[in-house]
Design brief:
173 residues; alpha/beta; Rossmann fold; four-stranded mixed β-sheet; globular; oxidoreductase; NAD(P)-binding protein; oxidoreductase activity; NADP
Length: 173
């Protein structure tokens, strides 16, 4: 790992040390159905304060951030899966949470009518993190409620590019 000393690397030795044959260490990256809306690219001009960021708007920024969670998860597994680190991304489900707090009128009613109680969000995470079969989920994308889904990120170049960008950001610290 080439991240700057003291930044981003504290977790890796512990994670790596806890992995053992037949019992990998697991990293569960929470994403959202929004990751499936974003599309196959990340606009790096919007990841820092910029006119492009302001123009993109909060919804599209959210979609992109959830897609980036999946992209990061896949690259983490690609780089360290052979060292016993299982990284999986998941959509916890449409949940009643603070995300809906600013909605009003018919939009609020429609969105809340398809949402589930917040505790349901833990089901897929627990399945990935504690089940025997979850040890084989590296690089996968899970959907509610404890099911395998179609991974919204399938481009290794995009995944490597995000990892490189992240390394560049912490190298400056």
């Amino acid at each position: 790992m080439t991240w700057a000393k003291g930044v981003g690397t504290q977790w890796f030795p512990t994670l790596s040390a806890t992995a053992s044959p037949g019992k990998p260490a697991r990293v569960i990256n929470t994403s959202s159905i929004a990751s499936e809306i974003n599309g196959p690219d990340i606009n790096y001009n919007t990841l820092k304060d910029s006119p492009a960021r302001k123009k993109m708007g909060v919804n599209k920024l959210y979609y992109q951030s959830k897609f980036a969670n999946v992209v990061f998860s896949n690259e983490l597994f690609r780089r360290y899966g052979d060292q016993g680190i299982v990284s999986v991304a998941l959509n916890p489900g449409n949940l009643r949470s603070g995300l809906q707090r600013h909605l009003t009128g018919i939009t609020k009613w429609i969105i809340e009518s398809v949402c589930h109680p917040t505790p349901f969000g833990a089901l897929t995470q627990l399945w990935a993190g504690t089940s025997d079969e979850g040890a084989k989920f590296g690089g996968k994308y899970l959907i509610p409620w404890a099911r395998m889904g179609t991974n919204p990120s399938t481009d290794a170049q995009t995944e490597k590019a995000l990892w490189t960008w992240l390394e560049e950001q912490v190298a400056q610290i």
